[in-house]
Amino acid sequence: METKREKEVHEVQLQNSQRLIEEQATANARCDAETAPANTVCDAETTARAAEQQIQINILKIVVTYMQGKEPTFSDFMTASPLSAAIT
Predict the structure, then answer these.
(1) Region class of 64: left (phi > 0), else alpha (psi between -120 and 50), else beta
(2) Which phi and psi (to 5°) does residue 71 adopt?
(3) What whole-number distance in Å separates Cα of residue 88 and Cα of residue 83?
(4) Predicted local distance difference test score (pLDDT) of residue 81
(5) What's the distance, CA 12 to chain centroid?
(6) Residue 75 C-beta-side C-alpha neighbours within 13 Å
(7) Where are the alpha helices (DSSP H) in 1-88?
(8) Measured distance CA(54)–CA(57) in Å, rounded
(9) 35: number of Cβ within 10 Å
(10) How many angstroms separate the first and last alpha carbons of the chain?
(11) What superkingdom does the record give (predicted)?
(12) Among 67, 64, 53, which Cα is nearest to 87's?
């Protein structure tokens, strides 16, 4: 059985722990608010870069399709390439 003094000590420890948790939550929220604009810019840049890369991929797919239809040796080259499995 806990004594009255032990209960008081535990209550103080609990209150201190709760205060520290609240302080950490406040600090985390402040940090999130400070980094949110930079994260938004970074996300926008990443999205734009991915869109540009997809455009380039689509162009290259068109070129490959054209070359396969016009140049038989190109098709042979593509089939023999060690990267052909990754390309298709």
Answers:
(1) alpha
(2) -130, 105
(3) 9
(4) 83
(5) 41
(6) 7
(7) 4-70, 72-80, 84-87
(8) 5
(9) 11
(10) 73
(11) Eukaryota
(12) 64
- Residue 68, C-beta contacts closer than 8 angstroms, at least 6 positions apart: 74, 75, 78
- What residue segments make up the domains of the chain, in order of their start? 4-87
Residue bearing tokens 């089939």: 79
Question: How far are the Cα atoms of 8, 26, 32 from residue 22, in angstroms, in the given order?
Answer: 21, 6, 15
pLDDT digits (tens, 9 = 90+) for 35-79: 999 999 999 999 999 999 999 999 999 999 999 899 889 888 888
**For residue 70, what are its two tokens?**
């016009």
Q: Report the distance separating Cα 79 and Cα 68, nearest Å.
A: 10
Q: How many residues are recorded in the chain?
A: 88
Token readout for 7 is 């209960």
